[in-house]
Amino acid sequence: MNYQQFNKEDFISDSFFRQWVKHPDNESNLFWENFLKTNPGQADTIYQAAEIVRNISAAAANLSEKSSFVEEEDLWESIKKQAFETESETEETSAPNIWWRGWSTFAAAASVMLMLGILGWVYLNRRTSEPTQVMKELVAKTPSRYIQEFNDAEKPKLVILPDGSSVLLQKDSRLTYARKFDGEKREVYLVGEAYFEVSKNPQQPFFVYANELVTKVLGTSFNIKAYSEENDVVVTVRTGKVAVFHQADPQKEEKKNSLSLDGLVLLPHQQAVFARQELRLSKTSGETVINLPKILPVQISTFIYDAVPASEVFKELSTAYGIEIVYDEGVLKSCRLTADLSDEPLSKKIEIVCKSIEANYDIQSNRIVVSSLGCQ
Amino acid sequence: MDKEQNHRDDALLWDAFRRGDEEAFELIYRTHSSTLLSYGKRICPDHDLVKDALQDVFVEIWKRRENLRDLHTIKFYLFRVMRNRLTLLMQNNLTSYGDDFPEKNEDLLSPSIDFILMEQETITHQQTKLQEAISSLPSRQREAIMLAFYEDFSNEEIAKIMGINYQSVLNHLNRAYLSLRELLTEITLLLSLFLSYSFQKILF
Question: Distance from CA of residue A317 to its chain's centroid?
Fold first, then answer.
């Protein structure tokens, strides 16, 4: 390259120059420092060209539209289905229509199970038995905007979301959510079944994407059953109110963006069933029609207390959410609680209980530690 | 992270993927899906088609993984096949998008009295103006700008991704810069000239 003759636009168009401005390394620093020493007359041009490179880069970065992780998750589900399923069949099908259309129609075969640790992806794979050391390292190096929780145990797994909402994840179910709930919406992606208690924030609606169905809530508790191989998606409301609509709903955007609940609205003990084959969404109500697939302890408890000893409250919370709660029974002996906690997520319940008995608490990954000086 | 290390990681990942490691496949998807989607959406107004193309690309590379050769970088490879696939889908799609998509705000940005006020404007405002100006470029120029300044591809890589020769990439970038300069005046392009300390440290 004849850099001596270069003008500003030549530098801007030069990849080695751009690379140095944006990602300088030893090699390029050495080259350009030398070049400037021998060609001091080009310093001004280079200085300005570098500035322009950085300004255009900043503008380009702002222009690039971020795709939603819901879109990426949906696509990944269909890619897995396509890639791994056609493979397990024999390779004989050389049909011309190998290019599969309709990314939104997905079902069947969750062939890769995965879970995410706090530091990175840790994969449990059905085919390859153990992640290799190399893959473990590569996975740990890759920063992710999202957290994935997978439950392969019989016992429901408690997940506490960044906004304090609690989720009880059932067996063979996976939940994906952003590390931080910034932005206008709180969005989670569910494959399988989970019971949600969403902390109230009408300003930042909460969305669950599960198969083809979108469930919008402002703060309440409900159950969603959406296994990818099952024919129905079932949403059951326990408290409060939720709205349900199809992902392909033409008015989806308006329904999502409004601060009210539009669409098929469900009240407590109502249920929406989406028949995936017939693309039909229907609502049933009344105690008798409710068939909660798996009744969880958390759905039986009323969480309404009238002068109940605090230790009993903690015992009930511990059973309901399947989490260990550490407290000193002797110290809490004289503490009693009167409160209605029926419509709060776990973190809020703990906060309210501890506030009223003047105790401190710490929510850790697998247990909650309560420290108190006792009550008079 | 340094470039050498990135290259080595890329090679390790690609090897694992070619041996049929599903975790490697997923990691490749998770690392590149978002940027490929936004690239696709920038060059094709039909977003469903972009998703179809992305799905096709990943299903296809999985099926043919054993026949895939060693590669320069995974990102470059994926951009290249993504663009090919998308171009093909757009051609097959009965809707004709024409050679160039309708340009946005073509005459919205003609130099105007704003120009006089420029110096008093905030840097953020000038950044916005610069963004608008980039959006108003003809689509091929805009694509080259995004690949060069956002995705940080080299000119050789851009040529192969866009399926044009090296000189055309230079022409696109040069012309893009000249139209930006015409639309905005030098001042905006150099908007933070007096605010950049870091660069001076590198330079002197």
Answer: 24
Q: Say yes or no for a CB contact (<8 Å) between A141 and B21.
A: no
Q: What is the ipTM of this complex?
A: 0.75
Could you tell me which residues come within 8 angstroms of residue A61 by beta carbon, excluding any fewer than 6 positions away? B150
A13: confidence class by pLDDT, cuts 50, 70, 90: very high
In the block, residue with structure tokens 């059932």 = A170
Question: Domain total for chain A?
Answer: 3
- A63, B39 contact by CB (below 8 A): no
Identify whether residues A249 and A360 lie together within a single domain. Answer: no
Shortest Cα distance, chain A CAs vs residue B203, angstroms = 7
A30: left (phi over 0), alpha (psi -120 to 50) or beta: alpha
Tell me what the pLDDT averaged over chain A comes to. Answer: 79
**Same fold for the pair B3-92 and B114-203:** no
Residues of A327-354 as b/e, b for ≥16 C-beta within 10 angstroms? beeebbeebbbebebebbbbbbbbeebb
Task: Centre a 10 Å sphere on the Cβ of residue B114 and count the other Cβ atoms it contains.
Answer: 15
Please tell me whether residues A118 and A244 are part of one structural domain.
yes
Looking at residue A341, which CATH number applies to its domain?
A: 3.55.50.30
pLDDT of B5 reads: 76
Over residues A114-118, mean pLDDT: 25
Assess whether A206 and A258 both reside in one domain: yes
More confident: A360 or A252: A360
A86 and A186 share a domain? yes
So where are chain B's domains? 3-92, 114-203
Domain B3-92 in this protein, CATH class: mainly alpha
Give tens-digit pLDDT for B146-198. 999 999 999 999 999 999 999 999 999 999 999 888 887 766 666 554 444 44
- Is A23 in Cβ contact with B149 (below 8 Å)? no
pTM value is 0.69
| Residue at A156 is within a domain | yes
How many residue pairs bridge chain A and chain B with CB atoms within 8 Å of each other? 191
The residue-averaged pLDDT of A157-162 equals 91
C-alpha angle A254/A259/A260, rounded to 5°? Answer: 85
Q: What percent of chain A is modeled with pLDDT above 70?
A: 84
User: From A68, which residue of chain B is nearest by alpha-carbon distance?
Assistant: B34
Q: Is residue A291 part of a domain?
A: no
Residues of chain B with pLDDT under 50: 1, 96-121, 193-204
Q: How confident is the model over A37-48, as pLDDT tens digits?
A: 999 889 889 988
Q: How far is B7 from chain A (nearest CA, A)?
A: 12
Which residue range is the domain that position A346 belongs to? 301-371
Is A63–B134 a contact, with Cβ atoms under 8 angstroms apart? yes
Residue pointed to by tokens 């696709």: B40
Strand A280-284 versus strand A271-275 pairing type: antiparallel
Question: Per CATH, the architecture of B114-203 is what?
Answer: Orthogonal Bundle (1.10)
